Amino acid sequence: xxVLITGATGYIGKRIIPLLLNEGHSVVCAVxxxxxxxxxxxxxxxxxxxxxxxxxxETLGNIPKDIDAAYYLIxxxxxxxxxxHKMEEACAVNFKNYIETTNARQVIYLSGITNDTKxxxxxxxxxxVENTLKSKVYALTVFKAGIIVGSGSASFEIIRDLVEKLPxxxxxxxxxxxxxxxxxxxxxxxxxKALGRTELYNTSHDIFGPEILTxxxxxxxxxxxxxxxxxxxxxxVMTPKLSSYWLYFVxxxxxxxxxxxxxxxxxxxxxxxxxxxxxLEVKPMTYKNAVALAFEKIESNHIASSWKDALINSRxxxxxxxxxxxxxxxxxxxxxxxxxxxxxxxxLDKIWAIGGENGWYYGNFLWQIRxxxxxxxxxxxxxxxxxxxxxxxTGDALDFWRVxxxxxxxxxxxxFAEMKLxxxxxxxxxxxxxxxxQRATFRPRGLAGRLYWHSVLPFHGFIFKGMINQLxxx
Length: 474
What we know:
6-stranded antiparallel sheet, 7-stranded parallel sheet, DUF2867, SDR family oxidoreductase, NAD(P)-bd_dom, 20% strand, 37% helix, alpha/beta, NAD(P)-dependent_oxidoreduct, single chain, 19 strands, 15 helices
């Protein structure tokens, strides 16, 4: 079959593509910008990449009409708390209107479990999208998942941050809310096995793991697997706003995502049993097994995707457009350095491993201070890290940067700043003819931008000189 994947660069999208290819299908990946897309998407014979923004109906004509099915994996949870439901509805309407003009016979939609009588804005939006996607032209298959546990998933990484960093946790009362977590491997099995199954046309199924757990139990079992002793005290009163700030400062999540999560975590996520496990021959694993499997992937350095790689909010969606891919030359402040290298390949390996747990090779404490200051003003800070310790791809998140270009063949890496700034900033590395070139470019916005550049200039001289010297060493 020829299958359309929306959200192709997202957490689920990146993981489902190779599974569909293994089943013999060809895949059409809908992305907002081809230049932000991993090179491997273009190298596979059975992958076609098209530019399509579902908030812009005029771009959807790039999607071929001869598709047989489509996966709807679009999510706007990390955008504005007040706007994401409108954006999700608009995307769903535009998607439906266009897909009805194609040959698609089935649309598969991954949603969230919505059985509680009181739902958060996030879950209400998911339910509204389901209703919007229903059609008389194609069949809709809906899977509603609980908390998804897997390497790189938002829930896994947040739990990991809390358990690894806090020996004693003073937590909100919603930690006693019950939920049914499910492993990412099982979610993918349901999604792939449902493709083309006519008995699942126009049906909806909850998918969930075999256990009903509280968030507190999930934290403690996670700690047990990590062989850490942790103590949790829940407070009877902690406002959603305080809870959101608690998650925001302790974990790597953005504040907007933290707000959405907190609003949902007070709702019980308990699935309704059905025959779907038997029908598709999927036996969901336990929470502990899902966590253990996630750490196997982390330790083997094989994290296929991370929620952190998604664009943070609408401000950065605009900034990641193609016009920012070309580093500007005029009207900018620059710090340009070059250094002879002893071993080009070794230097390139260092560049490709920069950031995250590997650090920035020089003045790491200053990078950490900058990250902390960014968090204080509502930015993302450094705690997104990187998905893989040695590999990097276009579109990846890298601390408070976004990878715009990662071309190993051309020996060039270009990063775009996603921290809070009075302007735009790029950091570029290039290796050529026995030299490493490093260029920091800042395009200021108004007087504030110019004052910012001059205030950090002394630190830049210290950091950037030390960094290029370390990159040049063997």
